[in-house]
């Protein structure tokens, strides 16, 4: 086994709110700022240009009244796994379709991968081609 599960896959709630202002001149346009459930914006975290836009919106210049949008959602968090070879934590490599150790690069359940990784230390893509695999360049 290449990886040991240290915590199961789970669902987590991401709480996110936005303070929004609709542009009065351009339909569908406007400004939005991260805020808490009461519409309070952490102005200290805004970049300078966003802070200027926020001040303009708060003065009501060219925008309609503010409203709060709840963008909270449930997200699936993959299981946490640890590599049995080096002890590093893994992540799911979307392009490879498998869990990959962040420390040593080991791919769970594979001997070689089209990304170039290989147990042998050689080029995994080249090994696959030598074995007769046809790999399309995307």
What does this structure look like?
Helix content is 13%, strand content 31%. It is α+β, with helices and mostly antiparallel strands. The longest helix has 11 residues.
Question: What is the fold's blueprint, element by element?
Answer:
Blueprint: E1 3-7, E2 10-14, E3 17-22, E4 30-35, H1 48-58, E5 67-70, E6 73-77, E7 80-83, E8 90-93, E9 98-101, H2 124-130
Antiparallel strand pairs: 1-7, 2-6, 3-4, 3-5, 8-9
Count of the domains: 2
**Annotation, overall tally of beta strands:** 9
Distance separating the two termini? 32 Å
Task: Give a short account of the largest sheet.
Answer: 3 strands, antiparallel
- Helix and strand sequence: EEEEHEEEEEH
Secondary structure class reads alpha+beta
Write a brief caption for the model.
The protein is α+β, with helices and mostly antiparallel strands and 138 residues long.
């Amino acid at each position: 086994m290449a990886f040991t599960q240290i915590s199961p896959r789970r669902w987590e709630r991401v709480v996110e709110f936005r303070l929004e202002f609709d542009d009065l001149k351009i339909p569908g346009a406007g400004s939005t700022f991260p805020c808490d459930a009461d519409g309070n914006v952490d102005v200290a975290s805004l970049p300078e240009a966003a802070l200027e836009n926020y001040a303009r919106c708060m003065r009501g210049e060219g925008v309609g009244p503010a409203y709060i949008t709840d963008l909270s959602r449930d997200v699936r968090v993959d299981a946490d796994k640890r590599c049995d070879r080096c002890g590093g934590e893994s992540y799911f490599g979307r392009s490879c379709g498998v869990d990959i150790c962040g420390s040593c690069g080991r791919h769970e359940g594979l001997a070689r991968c089209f990304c170039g990784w290989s147990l042998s230390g050689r080029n995994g893509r080249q090994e696959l081609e030598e074995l007769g695999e046809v790999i399309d360049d995307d």
